[in-house]
Amino acid sequence: SDSQSFAGKTVLITAGPTYEAIDPVRFIGNHSSGKMGFAIAEAAAARGAQVILISGPTSLQTGHERIQLIRITSAQEMYDQVFRFYDTVDVAIASAAVADYAPANVAAQKIKKSDSHLTIELIKNPDILAEMGLRKNNQFLVGFALETENEEENARGKLERKNLDMIVLNSLSDAGAGFGKDTNLVKFITSDGITEFGLKSKQAVAADILEFVQQGTLK
Ligand code: PMT
Description:
It is a single chain. It contains five helices and 14 strands. By secondary structure, the protein is an alpha/beta fold. The protein has one domain: Rossmann fold (3-Layer(aba) Sandwich), CATH 3.40.50.10300. It is globular and about 60 Å long. The structure holds ligand PMT. Ligand PMT is lined by residues 14, 16, 32-36, 75, 94-98, 100, 125, 127-129, 143-146, 158, 170, 178-180. This is Coenzyme A biosynthesis bifunctional protein CoaBC.
């Protein structure tokens, strides 16, 4: 794994959650810790890649000299950063848990409590991965799918609709997998078929992903 199999390659990775502001003190977010995406970034850099890591809010740090870490907050900011670089990268891996919706209006002041209920109108965020699929020229494009039902069918749908080369399916119903954990249980889906793995550390899952990407890009 310290072979420099990605030397000369640039890998773009999205990681972590996005936060969508409601007012100056509140947001809509999710439980992604960034661990999966940071593990992929470290593994790619260790294999010689130049890494652009675009991450939502997380306490994680990275010290690797070949990882350029760009911290963003919202889905729109992640979108803007991804497309600053996308045209020039060899591989893109979307492990971020991007909010699909954002408040239509961000209140300028903290919203005051009142006696009645409060409704927040949400508008759709851009689908960053779908846009990467549309704009694909030579990138090897990897998506993630976090499903709670009809998992393989939904993941295959995303593979096709978003024009991906591979999708990493992880399930919220598996113990030890998904948000925040140090381990993950994944299946890789390509147009050739499906490969299942056992429960392992996110570092080991990252190594498996890069192994697959390397084989895929050699084709
Ligand atoms: O960060 P950790 O705590 O380590 O947890 C890791 C993880 C569970 C977040 C990660 O393994 C994972 O599954 N990430 C994708 C989660 C997700 O939002 O999946 P999705 O099925 O909603 O989205 C499908 C794909 O489209 C993903 O690659 C996602 O990054 C991308 N997407 C989704 C919506 C959107 N607006 N833009 C996107 O790019």
